[in-house]
Amino acid sequence: MSTILMVVDDEPDVQLLMKQKFRKQLRSQEYQFIFAANGSEALQKLKENPDIDVILCDVNMPEMDGITLLSKTKVVNPTVQTVIVSAYGDMRNIRRAMNNGAFDFVTKPINFNDLGATISKTIKHVKRLKESITEKEQLHQKLERYSRDLEQTIEERTNEITIQKEIIEAKNQSITESINYAKRIQDAALPRVEEIKESVPKSFIYFKPRDIVSGDFYWFVKEKNKIIVTAADCTGHGVPGAFMSLIGNDLLNEIVTARGVVESDKILNELHESVRKALRQEENKSRDGMDLALCVIDTETKTLQFSGAKNPLVYFKNGEMTVIKGDKYPIGGVQFQLDRNYTSHQVDLSEPIMLYMFSDGYQDQFGGAKSEKFMSKNFKLLLKEIHEKPVEEQKQILDNRFKEWKGERSQIDDILVMGMRF
Questions:
Q1: How far is Cα 203 from Cα 150, in angstroms, rounded to an integer?
Q2: What does the alpha-carbon distance between residue 29 and residue 185 come to, in Å, rounded to a whole number?
Q3: For the chain, which end, N or C, has fewer CB atoms within 10 Å of the first or last residue's CB respectively?
Q4: Contact 34, 2 (CB under 8 A)
């Protein structure tokens, strides 16, 4: 199938040159050229020919110049890419072109070897862009299938999301609407912060998903004199990570609430086996799973059991920081060892203590003057700096420092930090 290129230039010789220099591609029907003498004519032809992939455009032309045309093309055809071909190749013109959405800039007199390479590169980019749009549409269809599969689970496990059933049954929903729906599901599955504060008044949760939905999640339950709490980081983020978080949430409810397992190491052992079974990992060798830190707090004996799957527990007593590392393997994924047994660590809560559990999103965020990771060392120093402050002030400082560090950069991962004072 031919790639359609539109050449926009008010010099008649350019049309002849293009046909001559690319005659081989024209004969083989690899390329097809459409010509326009100015921006206004080009815009009309773009509307009439939606299959145009690449525009080769001069800057100085009558009626409508190339930069003005450039600003209008994406409204007509969102995938078309424009290469500016101009004798005015100074940095000011190049910057104007790139800021207005040009894919590349070629200077006159034209080096046709350079132009040919640029056209090939641009065509590849357009192809990838169209493939991305197709993948996006396929993701939409896949998400609708996921939503239908979740309907039964939603009806069994929550009474608060009946309106979402109507959204599941609705057809032809956009990707954004579907993901927003998934967020409401995830919010309903997460413990209410008010319930956590009833049991642990001096606590905070700093939860900042990268996308609308999150692969990080927190889980909490109180069984008699024991409080079980976890901060988990699932494989991936966005929609895939959110589905893993729902699986983790349901399995923890089953293990702790239904089966009554309240020892930290046994909870992780059973969670690992349950994730592998739920995802059929013995058959398909998938590596999906989660890293997490889990604490079992006995309010009568004032002791804490901790077990971690890669993630640590950090706590402060009398101003001194202690880090208890988690075991070196995650929950779920390929199991190379014969047995995977998690370790239980004991912590005395009889003296005042500040505890932290967290995912790796905060410390992995790029930022600062050198655009580098925040790093685990700096994160722990920040916890040391704030650990004596009131918990809500700690949460606000964490948020302020994160925003300062990130600046205008994108957030690269989900973020979860939980703090509890006893």
A1: 32
A2: 52
A3: N
A4: no
